Amino acid sequence: MRDTVVSAEKMAEQREYADLAGRLLYERLGRNPKACTVTFGCQQNEADTELLRGILSEMGFLFTEKAQDADLIIFNTCAIREHAEMRAFGNVGQASHIKRANPDALLCFCGCMAQEQSACAKIKNSFPYVDILFGTHALYRFPQLLYKRLSTGKRVFDTDGEGVIVEGIEPVRKAPPNAWLSIMFGCNNFCSYCIVPFVRGRERSRDPERIVDEAKKLVSEGYKDITLLGQNVNSYGNDLGAGIDFSDLLKRINDIEGDFRVRFMTSHPKDASKKLFDTMASCEKVCKSIHLPVQSGSDRILGLMNRKYGIEQYTELVRYARSVMPEITLTSDVIVGFPGETEEDFIKTLDLINEVRFDSLFTFIYSKRERTKAALMEDLTPADEKQRRFDRLLEVQNRISREINENYVGKTFKVLIDGESEDENYTVKGRTEGFKLVHIKGSGEMMGKYKNIEIERASTWALFGR
Ligand code: 5AD
Ligand code: SF4
Known about the structure:
This protein is α/β, with parallel strands linked by helices.
């Protein structure tokens, strides 16, 4: 077994700590302890929280949505942009009230921010009521950290260590039909703006057998929409040396029997291949939908971002994908205001958006991150100019999204119903294969099922049907 996989002995040791910590808490409280988990950031963080909940559940924890009712509160944080960090600190600040009302409540701070020196220093110095601080690499050691906190009464910090793969923890997921399934962790790409490789470590792929087994289990449990997760799924397997790549993995999952569909994120354009699109086209359970972050429409900026592709290569990929899957939905990420981005560069981004016509776009204003290459680049564009570019980009994309969505009106799509609608005029909501949100006039008995829905109306953000 590769040395990135946490050994069975170490996992067994953690199970012993889980037992000890669980007992200690039960004795103190005279009942099962309650935990509240709060997650910021991406799907990978959501999946990590599900693993943590698995660990907590093994220790006898029950769960509550209300932090004030909890004996243990965990903030799983995100470091991707400054705004995310401010939100996490704001929430931890708020939690001081909870500690005042219930001094025995334990407060934990973990995730990507806990892999950052400056954030850790701030937690240690400015938030003395945080009991346990642990990074993404220490997640599986949580039982030991909790036991240490309970048995010594001292604050516990575990923010070092190397990136690992943890197997053998049963995540506590949300009820079907949707499930996250991590296939790999970390990133090797070092895009010049991005903090992820620093906080999540180098790329490491899970064993394909484990992934396929987990997918089979999910299908047997009634999950119908499985999202394979990784920072860059297209480089899955490169570190395994087992002759398996992401397309091969997709095929193996497609071969699992059952009524389900599978999607994945995120794909780096430099590693998205024709083989991938051919595989998507030929596998009936693989959704014809891809999130392919382009980041900028300017080759010069892409070079500075260290993205390792140009716009010609990107648009060629899109052309090929659409030639083998005409119905494919396409989404992307764009950063505006990267250091040195000129009006001319920005216009190239607008041109690209108008040319490709993404179904939707996640747009961000560049945020300077410590330790990254871009943090050292001269950045003279004023904040209000960046905001104006952001607004212009949004206006163009909103128009395109609305136009694309309006084309759905009058047609019927297979929708997986997955929750209650937040729109007061509709009862339930669901997703098409292309991941379009659909609000539906229907009934609760549709929940978790595929239904053919006729689209009656469309907006920039959603479709509406019955
Ligand atoms: N500033 C702004 N956006 C960023 N992203 C990543 N790092 C930064 C940053 N420093 C965006 C990218 C990425 C998405 C997940 O977040 O667009 O694809
Ligand atoms: Fe960050 Fe680039 Fe890795 Fe994505 S591929 S996580 S943007 S470094």
